[in-house]
Design goal:
Helix content of chain B: 10-25%
Strand content of chain B: 25-35%
Shape of chain B: globular
Radius of gyration of chain A: 17 Å
CATH topology of chain B: Glutaconate Coenzyme A-transferase
Number of domains of chain A: 1
CATH superfamily of chain A: Glutaconate Coenzyme A-transferase
Oligomer: heterodimer
CATH superfamily of chain B: Glutaconate Coenzyme A-transferase
Structural class of chain B: alpha/beta
Helix content of chain A: 10-25%
Distance between the termini of chain A: 19 Å
Order of helices and strands of chain A: HEEEEHEEEHEEEEEHE
CATH class of chain A: Alpha Beta
Number of domains of chain B: 1
Radius of gyration of chain B: 17 Å
CATH architecture of chain A: 3-Layer(aba) Sandwich
């Protein structure tokens, strides 16, 4: 039993407090905006210069002056604003963004993250990832699967890939567990229904600690 | 379009050219096309990306005018022209974190030669750079960037050079306008006056302007 990416997004969304300023990375983290609890308001920041980002533009109604960091046509909500790139990254670097939510190739026990480069012939591209992990108050990582396609752990003792930032990840949400990165290393606070601690440990490259009573994660797929 | 580039001493071989825009949004495509027609060589382009498709920056690169690109994200689904030249070792690349790129340009325009940022500390993009500790945190020294030319796309402009932008087509444009010896602007619409409260780029930063209409 594993959580789907939508399930993970729902758990992430439920942990974001009302009124938070949140930057969602391109790809899986963007799913979080589909699961904002009704009574809460998150103000989404997109680093190309918008606060109050709304849903993707309807087909046929795209305005290509209004795009997100993934260069997709989106919309702006009431109370939103536009600003230039230096202001946008002042919000990030200056610690004004409450939570940055990103994907990753690897996260280390001390909070190091590698998510920008797999060395190879293609030119290295970083975008805003290094600014976000260094600047946001909280950095949360979403892993669609706890291990890679080859079964290698993504949560490791130390990253093998080039780093995006050092000691900056606060929490990991995977398809199997929610793990806080603490001064004493990774601390599991929630685990997939039916999963044993030793099985989670076997899929993890760093030594895990567990809170005495882990929350049980359940798939939402049977909900209407 | 050529007249905006006539008799401009900063448009020369080896010049550093800032190009506003993010993806295809807010790019001064008509100015880039006019620049390409000058057939300059060994330009350094400062931009968020390295161009995609077969237009704008990608065509400028294909024409052989560009020796180096300073950018944050040189890859996209259709960045073939840049990637082929890069793989062949025919174009130089400096990859810069997006916020550090924006701040290096802002600093350039504000007369600040260098600054410290926590971004990229401990990563390959800090290699060879000075590191200092302030308040128990490590920071990387980054140098500002100034350019000979900035190519800016704006929504409206008046005869004093005051500019507005439309939504996220603003992106790098206002910062780059401040950091070049000569700032050339294409505006969608020339207006009699931009109301002072609505000015985003004050005219002091703008040298020449041309109306291009709503072509995007």
């Amino acid at each position: 039993m594993k959580l789907s990416s939508a399930d993970i997004a729902r758990y992430v969304a439920s942990d974001i407090s009302d009124g938070s300023y949140v930057n969602l990375g391109i790809g899986m983290p963007m799913l979080v905006s589909d699961y904002i609890p009704e009574e809460r308001e998150f103000i989404l920041h997109t680093e190309n210069g918008m606060l109050g980002m709304g849903p993707a533009a309807a087909e046929g109604e795209e305005d290509w002056d209004i795009v997100n960091a993934g260069k997709q046509a989106v919309s702006i909500l009431q109370g939103g604003s536009y600003f230039h790139h230096a202001d946008s990254f002042a919000m990030i670097r200056g610690g004004h963004i409450d939570i940055s939510i990103l994907g990753a190739y690897e996260v280390a026990a001390n909070g190091d993250i590698a998510n920008w480069l797999i060395p190879g012939p293609r030119p290295p591209a970083v975008g805003g990832a290094m600014d976000l992990v260094a600047g946001a108050k909280q950095v949360w990582v979403m892993l669609s699967s706890h291990v890679s396609k080859n079964g290698e752990p993504k949560v490791v003792e130390s990253c093998a890939l080039p780093l995006t930032g050092v000691g900056c990840v606060n929490r990991i949400y995977s398809d199997l567990a929610i793990i806080d990165i603490t001064a004493d290393g990774p601390l599991v606070t929630a685990m997939m229904e039916g999963l044993k601690r030793e099985d989670l440990q076997a899929k993890t490259g760093a030594i895990l600690n567990f809170v005495p009573k882990c929350e049980i994660l359940k798939s939402f797929k049977n909900e209407a | 379009m050529a007249e905006i580039m006539a008799d401009c001493n900063d448009l020369k071989d080896g010049a550093t050219v800032m190009l506003g825009g993010f993806g295809d949004t807010g790019v001064a495509v008509k100015l880039v096309d006019a620049l390409r027609e000058l057939s300059l060589s060994d330009l350094t382009i400062v931009s968020n990306g390295a161009g995609g498709g077969e237009y704008g920056l990608a065509l400028l690169i294909k024409s052989g005018s560009v020796g180096k690109i300073i950018c944050s994200f040189p890859r996209s689904s259709d960045s073939k022209i840049f990637e082929e030249l890069y793989a062949a070792g025919k174009i130089e690349l400096e990859t810069v974190p997006q916020g550090t790129l924006a701040e290096r340009i802002r600093a350039g325009g504000a007369g600040i030669p260098a600054f410290y940022t926590a971004t990229a500390f401990g990563t390959p993009l800090a290699d060879g750079k000075e590191i200092r500790v302030f308040n128990d945190r490590h920071y990387v020294m980054e140098r500002s960037i100034c350019a000979d030319i900035a190519l800016v796309h704006a929504a409206t402009g008046d005869r004093w050079g005051n500019l507005t932008y439309r939504s996220t087509a603003r992106n790098f444009n206002p910062v780059m306008a401040t950091a070049a010896s000569t700032t050339l602007v294409e505006v969608r619409k020339l207006v009699d006056i931009v109301p002072p409260e609505e000015v985003i780029t004050p005219g002091i930063f703008v040298d020449r302007m041309i109306e291009v209409g709503d072509y995007i």
